[in-house]
Design a protein that fits this description.
89 residues, mainly alpha, 2 domains, elongated
């Protein structure tokens, strides 16, 4: 085995661990944000929607799931390059 191969493998492993740590840190920061994602999405119309509609949106976004399930879904979307929903796309 060439002497460079273990070095490259070690660096790739470290890179993978660093990317996973950054992903976990980012998800935790987003989850602990004091801003309610539903209120930010709906805005001033928050009083005009029913609690049932609010629950439907939360269910569609997966906000009713446990945090580990949400992290798994988020990480899977991140790995596939699905970084969000954009109108008209």
């Amino acid at each position: 085995m060439p002497p460079i191969l273990p070095f490259v493998l070690q660096k790739l492993l470290r890179l993978g661990l660093l990317l996973l740590a950054v992903a976990v840190f980012t998800f935790v920061l987003l989850s602990l944000s004091p801003i309610d994602p539903l209120q930010a999405y709906i805005g001033a119309d928050m009083m005009q929607i029913s609690p049932e509609q609010r629950e439907l949106i939360a269910e569609r976004w997966g906000l009713d799931q446990p945090i580990l399930v949400r992290f798994g879904d988020w990480l899977g979307q991140l790995m596939r390059g699905q970084l969000g929903h954009f109108p008209g796309v």
